[in-house]
Amino acid sequence: MERVNELLNSIELAKDEANLADLENQAAESSLWDDPSKAQKLLSTLTVVKDKITKLRDLQAKVAIVSVYEIFFIYTYLFYVTWQTFIGLTVCAG
Fold first, then answer.
1. Where in the sequence is the domain holding 23, given as residue range(s)?
2. Does residue 6 lie in a domain region?
3. What is the reported pTM?
4. Domain tally for the chain?
5. Which pLDDT tens digit goes with each residue over 62-78?
């Protein structure tokens, strides 16, 4: 799980978000359609960047959920082993 987080951090989401803000500002300019081909290219790039950010945020959320479940199951197992030891039962591994 740590490797996934490292990968997500290396993707530079903040850089993409800054790029998105810049593209949105350009798209909001009144002169956008003075050059239709440039406007279409800008809007296409804007869509690609938005989709990338959305997918990365979704992936980050899923990784966070998996991490929570992973921690929950580890603690549940540790509690189980501790409880079995406490009441005098032997837990056989493997």
1. 2-86
2. yes
3. 0.61
4. 1
5. 877 877 778 888 888 88
